[in-house]
Design a protein that fits this description.
alpha+beta; eight-stranded mixed β-sheet; 13 strands; 17% helix
Protein backbone atom coordinates (compact mmCIF):
# COMPACT_ATOMS: atom_id res chain seq x y z
CA UNK A 1 0.00 0.00 0.00
CA UNK A 2 1.44 3.35 -1.04
CA UNK A 3 1.11 6.44 1.08
CA UNK A 4 1.65 9.82 -0.46
CA UNK A 5 3.42 12.63 1.40
CA UNK A 6 0.11 14.41 1.45
CA UNK A 7 -1.46 11.50 3.25
CA UNK A 8 1.24 11.49 5.96
CA UNK A 9 0.33 14.97 7.11
CA UNK A 10 -3.37 14.94 7.54
CA UNK A 11 -5.41 16.24 10.39
CA UNK A 12 -5.78 12.69 11.71
CA UNK A 13 -2.02 12.04 12.04
CA UNK A 14 -0.21 15.45 12.35
CA UNK A 15 -1.37 19.06 12.41
CA UNK A 16 -0.90 20.81 9.06
CA UNK A 17 1.65 23.28 10.55
CA UNK A 18 4.05 20.51 11.63
CA UNK A 19 6.06 20.34 8.38
CA UNK A 20 6.91 24.08 8.20
CA UNK A 21 7.97 24.06 11.86
CA UNK A 22 10.25 21.06 11.33
CA UNK A 23 11.90 22.76 8.34
CA UNK A 24 12.54 25.94 10.37
CA UNK A 25 14.05 23.98 13.28
CA UNK A 26 16.37 22.07 10.95
CA UNK A 27 17.54 25.37 9.40
CA UNK A 28 18.27 26.94 12.79
CA UNK A 29 20.26 23.91 13.92
CA UNK A 30 22.31 23.90 10.72
CA UNK A 31 23.08 27.63 11.06
CA UNK A 32 24.30 27.19 14.66
CA UNK A 33 26.51 24.29 13.65
CA UNK A 34 28.08 26.32 10.85
CA UNK A 35 28.65 29.29 13.17
CA UNK A 36 30.43 27.12 15.74
CA UNK A 37 32.60 25.60 13.03
CA UNK A 38 33.54 29.01 11.61
CA UNK A 39 34.35 30.33 15.09
CA UNK A 40 36.62 27.39 15.86
CA UNK A 41 38.31 27.56 12.46
CA UNK A 42 39.17 31.26 12.68
CA UNK A 43 40.03 31.53 16.38
CA UNK A 44 42.50 28.67 16.59
CA UNK A 45 45.16 30.61 14.70
CA UNK A 46 44.53 34.16 13.59
CA UNK A 47 47.72 34.08 11.53
CA UNK A 48 46.75 31.09 9.44
CA UNK A 49 46.85 31.63 5.66
CA UNK A 50 43.60 32.98 4.30
CA UNK A 51 42.41 34.22 7.68
CA UNK A 52 39.87 37.01 7.45
CA UNK A 53 39.21 39.09 10.54
CA UNK A 54 35.49 39.68 10.69
CA UNK A 55 34.42 42.90 12.43
CA UNK A 56 33.03 42.66 15.94
CA UNK A 57 29.47 43.92 15.70
CA UNK A 58 29.45 44.59 19.45
CA UNK A 59 32.55 46.78 19.38
CA UNK A 60 32.30 50.55 19.55
CA UNK A 61 32.51 52.21 16.13
CA UNK A 62 35.91 53.60 15.17
CA UNK A 63 35.78 57.39 15.40
CA UNK A 64 36.48 59.39 12.25
CA UNK A 65 40.00 60.84 12.10
CA UNK A 66 40.19 64.36 13.43
CA UNK A 67 41.35 66.94 10.90
CA UNK A 68 43.56 69.50 12.60
CA UNK A 69 43.00 72.94 11.07
CA UNK A 70 46.06 74.74 9.80
CA UNK A 71 46.74 77.57 12.24
CA UNK A 72 47.19 81.12 11.02
CA UNK A 73 50.52 82.86 11.49
CA UNK A 74 48.62 86.18 11.44
CA UNK A 75 51.02 87.69 8.94
CA UNK A 76 50.23 91.30 8.04
CA UNK A 77 51.21 93.25 4.95
CA UNK A 78 54.54 94.92 5.75
CA UNK A 79 55.94 97.95 3.87
CA UNK A 80 58.93 97.10 1.71
CA UNK A 81 62.36 98.54 2.43
CA UNK A 82 64.03 99.46 -0.86
CA UNK A 83 67.13 97.37 -1.54
CA UNK A 84 68.36 98.49 -4.96
CA UNK A 85 71.05 96.65 -6.86
CA UNK A 86 70.91 94.54 -9.98
CA UNK A 87 68.79 91.45 -10.40
CA UNK A 88 67.34 89.39 -13.21
CA UNK A 89 63.79 88.14 -13.59
CA UNK A 90 63.80 84.37 -14.13
CA UNK A 91 61.34 83.51 -16.88
CA UNK A 92 59.21 80.51 -15.89
CA UNK A 93 58.01 78.68 -18.99
CA UNK A 94 55.28 76.08 -19.25
CA UNK A 95 56.77 72.76 -18.19
CA UNK A 96 59.80 71.99 -16.01
CA UNK A 97 62.08 74.89 -15.06
CA UNK A 98 65.39 73.92 -13.44
CA UNK A 99 67.26 76.31 -11.17
CA UNK A 100 69.15 76.26 -7.87
CA UNK A 101 66.73 77.63 -5.28
CA UNK A 102 68.87 77.29 -2.14
CA UNK A 103 72.39 77.77 -3.58
CA UNK A 104 73.58 74.27 -2.66
CA UNK A 105 74.82 73.43 -6.16
CA UNK A 106 71.91 71.05 -6.87
CA UNK A 107 69.34 71.99 -9.49
CA UNK A 108 65.80 72.27 -8.15
CA UNK A 109 62.54 72.55 -10.05
CA UNK A 110 59.49 74.72 -10.69
CA UNK A 111 56.75 72.92 -12.63
CA UNK A 112 54.40 75.28 -14.47
CA UNK A 113 51.19 73.83 -15.90
CA UNK A 114 48.07 75.26 -17.54
CA UNK A 115 44.44 74.59 -16.66
CA UNK A 116 41.09 75.71 -18.02
CA UNK A 117 38.91 77.16 -15.27
CA UNK A 118 35.83 75.24 -16.42
CA UNK A 119 33.41 78.19 -16.41
CA UNK A 120 34.81 80.43 -19.14
CA UNK A 121 37.33 80.24 -22.00
CA UNK A 122 40.03 81.74 -19.77
CA UNK A 123 42.91 79.59 -18.58
CA UNK A 124 45.34 79.94 -15.70
CA UNK A 125 48.73 78.55 -14.70
CA UNK A 126 49.74 76.62 -11.60
CA UNK A 127 53.21 76.49 -10.05
CA UNK A 128 54.60 73.57 -8.04
CA UNK A 129 57.99 74.29 -6.47
CA UNK A 130 60.29 71.46 -5.37
CA UNK A 131 63.79 71.17 -3.91
CA UNK A 132 66.17 68.24 -4.30
CA UNK A 133 68.37 68.35 -1.22
CA UNK A 134 71.01 65.96 0.11
CA UNK A 135 69.88 66.89 3.61
CA UNK A 136 66.31 65.71 3.02
CA UNK A 137 66.05 61.91 2.92
CA UNK A 138 63.31 59.42 3.64
CA UNK A 139 64.71 55.89 3.37
CA UNK A 140 67.41 53.73 4.95
CA UNK A 141 69.81 54.37 2.08
CA UNK A 142 69.57 58.13 2.67
CA UNK A 143 68.58 58.87 -0.90
CA UNK A 144 67.64 62.52 -1.50
CA UNK A 145 64.10 63.15 -2.69
CA UNK A 146 62.06 65.91 -4.28
CA UNK A 147 60.58 68.00 -1.50
CA UNK A 148 57.55 70.28 -1.89
CA UNK A 149 58.27 73.94 -1.16
CA UNK A 150 55.26 75.71 0.33
CA UNK A 151 54.54 79.44 0.51
CA UNK A 152 53.28 81.53 3.41
CA UNK A 153 50.24 83.52 2.31
CA UNK A 154 50.91 87.25 2.70
CA UNK A 155 47.33 87.93 3.79
CA UNK A 156 46.71 85.48 6.62
CA UNK A 157 49.79 83.29 7.00
CA UNK A 158 48.11 80.14 5.69
CA UNK A 159 50.45 77.72 3.95
CA UNK A 160 49.95 77.37 0.18
CA UNK A 161 51.16 74.15 -1.43
CA UNK A 162 50.75 75.50 -4.97
CA UNK A 163 50.62 78.96 -6.51
CA UNK A 164 48.47 80.07 -9.42
CA UNK A 165 47.85 82.95 -11.76
CA UNK A 166 44.58 84.89 -11.85
CA UNK A 167 43.70 85.79 -15.42
CA UNK A 168 40.98 87.61 -17.31
CA UNK A 169 40.40 88.55 -20.93
CA UNK A 170 42.15 91.90 -20.39
CA UNK A 171 45.20 90.68 -18.52
CA UNK A 172 46.66 89.05 -15.42
CA UNK A 173 45.46 90.05 -11.96
CA UNK A 174 48.01 87.77 -10.26
CA UNK A 175 51.31 86.31 -11.42
CA UNK A 176 54.35 84.73 -9.75
CA UNK A 177 58.00 85.48 -10.53
CA UNK A 178 61.45 84.56 -9.27
CA UNK A 179 64.16 87.22 -9.25
CA UNK A 180 67.86 86.49 -8.79
CA UNK A 181 70.51 88.90 -7.53
CA UNK A 182 74.23 87.98 -7.72
CA UNK A 183 75.28 85.51 -4.98
CA UNK A 184 71.76 85.50 -3.56
CA UNK A 185 69.05 82.87 -3.44
CA UNK A 186 66.15 83.57 -5.82
CA UNK A 187 63.43 85.70 -4.26
CA UNK A 188 59.80 84.85 -4.99
CA UNK A 189 57.61 87.76 -6.08
CA UNK A 190 53.82 87.58 -6.18
CA UNK A 191 52.33 90.47 -8.17
CA UNK A 192 48.66 91.07 -7.31
CA UNK A 193 46.23 93.65 -8.70
CA UNK A 194 43.16 94.86 -6.82
CA UNK A 195 40.04 93.72 -8.64
CA UNK A 196 38.07 96.97 -8.62
CA UNK A 197 34.81 96.85 -10.55
CA UNK A 198 35.90 94.54 -13.38
CA UNK A 199 38.81 92.66 -14.93
CA UNK A 200 39.43 95.62 -17.26
CA UNK A 201 39.92 98.22 -14.51
CA UNK A 202 43.21 99.93 -13.81
CA UNK A 203 43.89 99.29 -10.13
CA UNK A 204 46.65 99.23 -7.54
CA UNK A 205 49.32 96.55 -8.02
CA UNK A 206 51.26 95.14 -5.06
CA UNK A 207 54.56 93.23 -5.20
CA UNK A 208 54.79 90.72 -2.34
CA UNK A 209 58.33 89.44 -1.67
CA UNK A 210 59.22 86.05 -0.18
CA UNK A 211 62.51 84.55 1.01
CA UNK A 212 63.31 80.83 0.97
CA UNK A 213 63.89 79.46 4.46
CA UNK A 214 64.57 76.04 5.94
CA UNK A 215 62.14 74.99 8.64
CA UNK A 216 63.68 73.11 11.56
CA UNK A 217 60.56 72.93 13.71
CA UNK A 218 58.46 69.78 14.06
CA UNK A 219 55.29 71.43 12.83
CA UNK A 220 52.98 71.54 9.83
CA UNK A 221 55.25 73.76 7.70
CA UNK A 222 57.35 72.02 5.03
CA UNK A 223 61.12 71.63 5.49
CA UNK A 224 61.69 74.41 2.95
CA UNK A 225 59.17 77.20 2.49
CA UNK A 226 58.91 80.75 1.19
CA UNK A 227 58.35 83.12 4.09
CA UNK A 228 56.57 86.39 3.42
CA UNK A 229 58.93 89.34 3.87
CA UNK A 230 57.23 92.59 2.82
CA UNK A 231 55.24 94.39 0.13
CA UNK A 232 55.91 97.24 -2.32
CA UNK A 233 53.17 99.09 -4.18
CA UNK A 234 53.50 100.27 -7.78
CA UNK A 235 53.37 104.03 -8.33
CA UNK A 236 50.81 103.76 -11.14
CA UNK A 237 47.67 101.70 -11.58
CA UNK A 238 47.58 98.88 -14.13
CA UNK A 239 45.18 96.50 -15.82
CA UNK A 240 47.81 93.76 -16.15
CA UNK A 241 50.35 92.96 -13.42
CA UNK A 242 52.85 91.84 -16.06
CA UNK A 243 53.07 95.42 -17.27
CA UNK A 244 53.59 96.59 -13.70
CA UNK A 245 56.45 94.11 -13.29
CA UNK A 246 58.10 95.31 -16.49
CA UNK A 247 57.68 99.00 -15.67
CA UNK A 248 58.20 99.24 -11.92
CA UNK A 249 59.68 96.16 -10.25
CA UNK A 250 63.28 97.32 -10.69
CA UNK A 251 62.68 100.71 -9.08
CA UNK A 252 60.42 99.35 -6.34
CA UNK A 253 62.61 96.42 -5.20
Amino acid sequence: MKLSSKALFTKKQFPVWTLPVIIILIGVAAYKAMSIGESQRFTKDDNMPGYVAYPDINASPTPSPTVTPVPNIEATVKPHIYIGGKFEVIALKNGINTLDLNNDGIMDMVLKTRRENGTSPHWYSMYNIAILSKGLTFDEESQPYWHTVTTENYRDGDILETLSTYEGADGFLRETYLIKAPNQKPVLVMAVRDFGESYADKEKVSFHFYDLEQNTEADWVSDYFYRYRDTAVADRKYVDVREAIAQELAKRY
